[in-house]
């Protein structure tokens, strides 16, 4: 079995894309089916319909379901028109967006949603609140912006030496191989200001932090090369606060992969500060990898 066929054999789960007819969700749909084409994946389109307001009125519930199915059929037709070689299924899912999204993610290789910060459009389910949805998922989540994504290159991954970052690195290396892109490994570093004092850090301490970050980059490069020996790898040391540095480094990327530390219980519904900040300033399609879930292509 060749390396490529082994990779394709790993793609046993489907890519799940949330649709709702909005432009943010359409942008996610276009990106998601393109990703599916390049990774030889099947796609499930799902639409969430909250029937709570209609629970006491069967006639209204039936009409709501019919309208939901109509919208889902329209999105399916659109998806087939832009990706005729992809195998599609659909799912009209009653429930609340967060609950259905979490359930759908349990059987997915990747879940894809759109984003439109501050969207006030009526009936937009997946075009807003992607941070909350990403935090609740059991699988990697791709959050796709609405702006033009043409002429972009490189899979960028942010690393800091943590287990979470290493999982993101592994995913990014495999994605770069499948997509035929260069892998660019980014580490951002900065020296925090000393509180309530004008005293500056010494040049020695600054150099030690810089060297430690360089070592993290070198270690990440070696890990990625072991994961996917055939890909081109570049490292980038950025002197900046992590969110700002990552966002700037990925502004022209085809894909940005970021790890999100694993949590349990109620805290599981919150993203870490870096992944949260990146999604609030989304520079490219972003895939969030959880530390406490299996994530692999």
UniProtKB/TrEMBL annotation:
Q: Where is the signal peptide?
A: none
Q: Which Gene3D superfamilies match?
A: HUPs (3.40.50.620)
Q: Which residues form a coiled coil?
A: none
Residue stretches making up the UspA domain: 11-145, 153-290
**Pfam entry (one):** Usp
> Which family does the similarity line name?
Belongs to the universal stress protein A family.
Q: What is this protein called?
A: Universal stress protein
Could you tell me which species this protein originates from? Pseudoclavibacter caeni
Organism lineage reads as: Bacteria, Bacillati, Actinomycetota, Actinomycetes, Micrococcales
